[in-house]
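re: ur question from yesterday

yeah so i grabbed the chain u mentioned. its 488 aa long if i counted rite. heres the sequnce exactly as i have it in my notes:
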Amino acid sequence: MAKFKLKYQMYKSLQENIPNIYAEARKAAEELGIPAELKGKFGLTGAISGCPAPLRKDILEYSEKGGKEVIPLAKLVEEIRGLVKEVYGDEYDAAPVNTCEAGLWVTFDTLFTPPMQGRGDNYQARYIALYEKHLHHQGGYGRPFPPRFKDILADRGSTAGELGFYGKRQNNLSVYYAPLEGACYDVHGIKYHPVPLLTKVDPEASGEKISLIAERNATILTGITSLGYDTPGYGYGVKDEDGTPVMQKILANIAKDFDVPYVVDNAWGVPFIGHDIRKSGADVVIYSMDKASGATTSGLIIGKEEVMVPIRRALGMHGDRWGTTASYGKAAYVTQDPGKEALLGQVAALKALKDKPEILTKPVDDLYKIVKEEFDQIHPKIKEGLIITKSYNSTAVEVNYENTWKNGELGFPIFSIEDMYAGTNILQSGMGQMGVIPTIAYDANIYISPGLGTTDENGQLIEDRARYCIKALVKLMEIVGKYSGYLD
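ran it thru and got these structure tokens back, copy pasting raw so excuse formatting
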């Protein structure tokens, strides 16, 4: 294939060759011997909300048993609170919600936005969000500042207009997007767009910069937010002796200095064996419990008791007005209540994480071994630029290829998140052509996890199925590398 001097030429060529890439991908799937009965029924991750993994046997049995019993929902909420307090301590509390995004919504509105009651006009409030991956989640609830970011989320998602992503913005709230020191925000992709490349983030220098931003915005600053992940591709590869990402500890300290809450979006993470709120110093951590934890579809907010009181009140579950420790009443965010089945599945998942963490950690170990073995076989030019990392927090294996771009030469194609929404992320759409349901694969970062037809009823890895998926990914990357001109 032709070599290109300019990035946009490479991506233009890839767009023109999508039919050829798809044809080769389908042929490669046949050559790999992927069984026809598996195609479209297994994939690279069970942690995508749009295609969640089948529930484990222990989750199903617990939910079925509870589903046949009369159980007040407040009792299940109290059981979740008890499990969280047993692990993290009595100074922490919890509130289950129907989704992780619901958890972000109620938390930001409770802790970051100005009060709605009282005389006079509302004052302006602002929170700081790192300019990092998945920005439309943790950074999508305020008007962007500085103005150069005002269109950064313009095409994100599938619904345009006032009630698309712009409709998430909360009352009199803006968000300061803080670029990270050491990060690179070059433009890539067929849907050409800035991408956060974060393996070289300097947490100390970034912390100094964010402190200055906080100081400049001190009169309107109401909070700080970031992701809760722990891998290099997400910018959290630098850790302390306890394994806690240094960046998160620095953000917690800055928030404490300015008396504002630090909220962590740990959607693709698990409580107890993942991000430790006690070590990071975060005020609130929010989880998507159906992703990595294996629960029924639901979210979970865990935080320090002081900030959890207004959050639980907003959800109508903090207690009756005449004095009780729990309720299931009406409030502004009762619309985000999880149902009985969601609560039962969440209780079962938390019990497993607390008492039998190996149910979730062993498949990660087994998957990491397969990923290492199969990527050892990839073209040496791609292999040289890979960083492969195991994460118990996300029960995932991260394959990052930022380092294929070096010395001013074009590297392996990087697809933007806008490519994902436009259907032009070939590392995702191409896997579909091979019969393998894809995973998150943009910003030079591929997140792989067990669960989607690659584990048995007990959640343990089925090796041959997992290996088919990884082999297919390796082959697709080689095909894309050839059509991009990166490989000879």
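noticed a couple things. The domain at 7-54+358-483 is CATH 3.90.1150 (Aspartate Aminotransferase, domain 1). also The mean pLDDT is 96.
anyway ttyl
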